[in-house]
Design goal:
two-stranded antiparallel sheet; 5 helices; elongated
Length: about 140
């Protein structure tokens, strides 16, 4: 029973709950970034480099069966091995954007954190003050 109690104490700690919330928000945020990359950024990048869709950039590594369309989805469905470097480019750009956004967020959070004010020095006890006064009067 002590193992169950120990696990409960671990799971209820604030850091574990914060981590769980972060993972959930990160998953939702990842979908937003996927959409931004796939729907907004990659079409512009593809237009600049002359290719309209990076996701269909691939090299066929096997033989294509008769009647199979030469699209990435159809080739994968037919079981033809393909080297889908366009998909990798899309995922890499997605990662870079997500990493940059997280960097900016953490930088802003650290900037907003205020330094704790310095703790005031504790008051000197009366007996120490009295002893200092006696010392100072003896020096004169």
């Amino acid at each position: 029973m002590s193992m169950l109690k120990e696990f409960r104490e671990f799971a209820v700690k604030g850091n574990v709950i914060d981590l769980a919330v972060g993972v959930i928000i990160g998953g939702a945020f990842g979908k937003i970034v996927d959409s931004v990359v796939a729907d907004l950024i990659m079409p512009v990048v593809g237009l600049v480099f002359g290719k309209l869709d990076f996701s269909n950039l691939f090299l066929v590594l096997g033989t294509i069966p008769e009647g199979t369309a030469r699209t990435l989805a159809e080739l994968k469905k037919a079981g033809v091995p393909v080297f889908a470097y366009g998909n990798f480019i899309t995922v890499a750009v997605n990662f870079l954007i997500l990493a940059f956004i997280i960097f900016i967020m953490i930088k802003q959070i650290n900037r907003l954190k205020r330094e704790a004010p310095a703790a005031p020095e504790p008051a000197t006890p009366e007996d120490i003050v009295l002893l200092r006064e006696i010392r100072d009067s003896l020096k004169r």
